Amino acid sequence: MKILITGTTGYIAKRLALKLLEQGHQLVCCVRDLSRIPDEIENHPSVSFIKIDFLSPGSSVLPQDIDASYYLIHSMSNPSEDFESLERQCAENFKTLVESTKCKHVIYLSGIVNDKTLSKHLRSRLMVEETLKSNNYHLTTLRAGIIVGSGSASFEIIRDIVEKLPFMITPKWLHTKSQPIGIRDVLNYLVGVLEQQETYGKSFDIFGPEILSYKDMLFQFAEVRGLKRYIITLPVLTPRLSSYWLYFVTSTSFKLATALVDSMKVEVIGKPSNINVITNVKPIPYRDAVNLAFQKIQQNAVISSWKDAVSSGNFNDQLSKHIEVPSFGCFKDIRSRVITDETYTINKIWSIGGTNGWYSFNWLWKIRGYIDKLFGGVGLRRGRTHKTYLEPGDPLDFWRVLLADKKQKRLLLFAEMKLPGEAWLEFKIVKNKLFQRAVFRPKGVLGRLYWFMVLPFHGFVFNGMINALAEKR
């Protein structure tokens, strides 16, 4: 079967694509930026790619012989204040394009919308569902609540809270109840409804077997990790203060924290249906989903993370627009070292950041991360998705990977920290010589003042970093 997938670089779609390929399907994957094609499927013989932005598709055309399609696009953490209109526009453009093909079945992953008072995000999900309905194809909507899996936003946020705070003073929304579901079960449902006529034109809630409050989830998570945690909830914490609390404690952006707090006030309890019988899926308990997630993390086998989305930081352009590092009007710090073991140096470069740190004066990097967080930036808390593997689009602390090419022996990063300008950091090996280049394009007088203010630190921070990368110890 020929299947169209949208949101290819997203958390769900990356994993779904691999599962569909295992079943022998042919995939057409939509991407906004061809430089962000996931390595796992880039050269697969059964996968083709279309560059398309559903917000402005222009003259884009989809293949006529598509049998089914997955709509996995959302704008929850988009910097725009009016993400609802963006979601509607996206869905309308998708619908118009798909209606011009032979596609018979569209599958949409939405959110559970059974509470009387819905958040802005969940109202938008319901609106998208209505927009996608068509007389030209059959629509199946799967509505999920909290998705638990290695790299999922809810998993990583709860992990941040539990592992960093032995004693918690928390907002009252921790008493809100939901039915968390494991990522493995979500994928099984998505694949299980494919071409199932019983699901045509219907919506189904998919959820785990337990009804848990957020407080219950924190305690169960702590038990899995072998940690003792104490929680006090305050009824007086306003939504804005709650957002700040979530933002400073976890790796989420403030924009996403605000959207999450808005949604966390809404109970997400699913309505029973026959979807488990149709798909032959038996959802696993929350504790088992957490255990499975940590197995993936320990095996360094995390396929995708919510942080991979460019909207998890301050970067919203296509990566390709920034790969050409500017030279005019820029300040530069360029250093080089002769290397004796190229393999060692490349492996060190590809392991930089995250828990490995930056090899020199890590405490200064941490201070810079705290300062960035105070000014509304991403800080260092995103870490990295994989310990030793990088691909374009990956988050790397407060950087975004623009290019990671071991054949070219080049890694290029773009700064997502709060800056009065733009910054790049590049590592490249040419003829047994490592070049390390930091480039800063200032914005106005403030940008120039910033460069000269941090310049004294470059001497030992950047010098120590290149020495650690070049010298085998």
In short:
This protein is α/β, with parallel strands linked by helices and about 475 residues long.
Quaternary structure annotation: single chain
Helix content: 25-40%
Please give the radius of gyration in angstroms: 23 Å
The tally of strands reads 19
Silhouette: globular
Query: How much β-strand is present in the residues?
Result: 15-25%
Structural class: alpha/beta
By DSSP (H or I, 4+ residues per run), the number of helices equals 14
Poorly predicted segments: none
Sheet with the most strands, sense and barrel status: 7 strands, parallel
Q: Report the average pLDDT across residues.
A: 85
What distance lies between the first and last C-alpha atoms, to the nearest angstrom? 53 Å
Task: Explain how this protein is built.
α3 (83-99) runs parallel beside α4 (120-132), α7 (214-224) packs across α11 (286-298) and α8 (239-249) packs across α9. The chain has a 7-stranded parallel β-sheet, with helices on both faces. The chain has a 6-stranded antiparallel β-sheet with strand order 14-19-18-17-16-15. The protein has a two-stranded parallel sheet with strand order 7-10. It contains 14 helices and 19 strands. It has helices at residues 11-22, 39-42, 83-99, 120-132, 153-164, 183-192, 214-224, 239-249, 254-264, 275-279, 286-298, 342-349, 362-374, 444-470; strands at residues 2-5, 26-31, 47-51, 68-71, 105-111, 138-144, 147-148, 167-171, 177-178, 181-182, 202-206, 212-213, 230-234, 331-338, 395-396, 399-405, 410-415, 421-429, 433-442. The chain has 473 residues and is of the alpha/beta class.
